[in-house]
Design goal:
alpha/beta, two-stranded parallel sheet, 7 strands, about 10% strand, disordered C terminus, binds zinc ion
């Protein structure tokens, strides 16, 4: 099991690898911070309209309140993954508190869905060494992103789509959010409205859009 430092070094090497050495895989659109009764349903509808499947990194404390939305997300063909329990920065926690947050999140996920998540993305992308080790120990794969729509800020849909598709390439992992709870914006409209343009630009580039689990082997992608 690689250490956190080894993972970072691997990520650096992965980023420097010529694209041809990576397995062609397509693009993943991912959503953090749900499930959310105001944001998740219109985003599910936008994904249906675009004809693409996505991956939702759910927060344990939201899953406890809105598990029916998570189950509907899965029933509509999307993938559920994990984003922690309390949405705290793991490197601000004592090691045992970070481990407890992951274990509690995993328990909530299994209780709500009857399944184990394959992927884990820490809130704010902030692993600590303890939480990274716990992620691997609990059998999950760490996932970051390669581009974000900056949709935690109040910016229009066109800007979200432009940012999300900047440098779009095979293996890109786009980060968006299906909740306003941990950001600074009033609603999720721009995120839902950007989905069609993001899917269209992927198609123009000859790239499919699918769940993370359907893509080829993933390098541990870090944000730029
Ligand atoms: Zn988050």
């Amino acid at each position: 099991m690689p250490s956190y430092r080894q993972m970072l070094e691997t990520a650096e090497r992965w980023r420097e690898m010529p694209a041809i050495e990576r397995v062609p895989s397509g693009v993943a659109i991912t959503f953090d911070d749900g499930p959310d009764p105001d944001c998740t349903p219109p985003i599910l509808d936008a994904l249906d309209a675009a004809g693409v499947k996505a991956t939702f990194f759910v927060v344990g404390e939201q899953l406890m309140r809105h598990h029916a939305i998570a189950r509907e997300t899965a029933a509509r063909g999307h993938e559920l993954a994990l984003h922690g329990y309390e949405h705290v920065e793991h490197d601000s926690l004592r090691p045992q508190a970070a481990r407890d947050d992951l274990a509690r999140a995993l328990g909530a996920f299994e209780a709500a869905t009857g399944r184990k998540p394959r992927f884990f993305r820490p809130p704010y992308g902030r692993f600590s060494e303890a939480s990274y080790d716990a992620c691997r120990h609990l059998g999950m794969e760490p996932v970051y992103w390669s581009a974000w729509g900056m949709d935690w800020e109040p910016i229009p849909a066109e800007r979200v789509a432009d940012l999300a598709t900047r440098d779009l390439a095979d293996g890109s992992i786009v980060l968006l959010h299906d909740s306003t709870r941990y950001g600074h914006r009033p609603d999720c409209g721009p995120t839902a409205d950007a989905i069609g343009a993001i899917a269209a630009r992927a198609a123009e580039a000859g790239l499919g859009v699918d769940r993370l689990a359907e893509l080829g082997p993933l390098g541990p992608i870090l944000s730029a």
